Amino acid sequence: MVRRILWGSLALAPITLLVDYLLHPGKTLLFALAAVSLVPLAWLIGEATEHAGEHTGPGIGGFLNATFGNAPELIIALLAVGKGEAEVVRGSLTGSVVSNVLLVLGLALCFGGRGHVDRRSTRRSLVLIAVAVALLLIPAIASWSGGDPERHSLAVLSLPVSIVLLVLYVAVTAASLRREAREHVAEPAEREPWPLRTALLALGAVTVVTALVAEVLVDSIETFADNAGLTDFFVAAVIVAIVGNAAEHGGAIVVAAHGKIRLASEIALASGAQVAVFLIPAVAIISWLIDPLPLSFRPVEIFALAGSVLIASIVLFDGTTSRNKGAVLVAGYGAAVVAFFLAGNR
User: Fold this and answer.
1) Which of 133, 90, 176 is nearest to 309 (CA)?
2) Nearest to 111 by CA among 222, 242, 259, 11
3) Which of the residues 183, 209, 260, 305 has an alpha carbon 20 to 30 A from that of 148?
């Protein structure tokens, strides 16, 4: 049923583009249409990536997942960089990590109830995010001392931090893939995978459409925020972050509801870690081709990131899950949302 709805809702993307091109409606309506349209597009990218991975093996499959799985967020971030919306970029990236670790994991535990997590995988993801936060403190603290937080010197300072994070991501991912290859037991596929050519063509096509819809979203953020009485930062850190991850969010919750709590927790935490050690540095490095982006995160962003790791570590310390623990995580996300709201724009 859910899959049928997602397939049908793919029509929202061309509708959004046609409405924007032909009718030129208000930016608030365009923001809403674009945000909803990105959800099935993100899901289709995940579907095509999964089918392609069935043909390429775990190594290339992992690379495809890292590259295309974060495509909506990456595209939104780079478009915002091109429009000089640095606060929107950083806010959406921060919000993505926090929503995965607290909101998605929390809802998964609420739906899944009692169970166990893979303690090794959980520890790895949380440590990766913690290391990322520690390294991001270098340009962040330098931006708190006054002066322009977008100054070029901070972008230069962010570059080696980004390189270290990417090297860390590659090293950890390679080690994980080697271990999984040794431990993996082949199982018959639950469904016939798409032909590789079909999967790759679908990836290319949906990525292009995602870029077009994301451009509409980015163009309308400021007007939507003004009309809704919200700041650009809040819209990016909460609404855009959730929209960019909507497919993964929904997937984790559905998996948990089916009793696969361990898998659901891995989806949520691995996605958060991937944003922290892959997407953030990737955006910072690629931005040098457009307009160098300093990783000058605000105190509220750093505290939200560190707090999410701390809360998740305490909740999952014994490796067990429960609905009460899920409620604690969701409450933590609620606190982060309030903090983002009170922080306002820089």
Assistant:
1) 133
2) 259
3) 305
pLDDT in tens, 147-181: 889 999 999 999 999 999 999 998 988 787 677 66
Nearest of 345, 285, 328, 341 to residue 103 by alpha carbon = 328
Rounded CA gap, 88 and 283, in Å? 13
Residue type, 202: A
Hunting for tokens 């049923």 — which residue is that? 1
Token look-up 């919000």 returns 95
Q: What is the CA radius of gyration of the chain?
A: 19
Cα–Cα distance, 283 to 165 (Å, whole number): 12
Fold of the 2-343 domain: A middle domain of Talin 1 (1.20.1420)
pLDDT digits (tens, 9 = 90+) for 78-135: 999 999 999 999 999 999 999 999 998 999 899 888 888 888 888 999 999 999 999 9
| Residues contacting 283, CB < 8 A, separation 6+ | 74, 77, 78, 81, 89, 93, 293
- Where are the domains positioned within the chain? 2-343
Q: Specify which residues 320 forms β-bridges with.
A: 116
Using DSSP, how many helices (H) and how many strands (E) does the chain show? 16, 2
**Residue 204, phi then psi, degrees to nearest 5:** -65, -45
Residue type at position 16: T
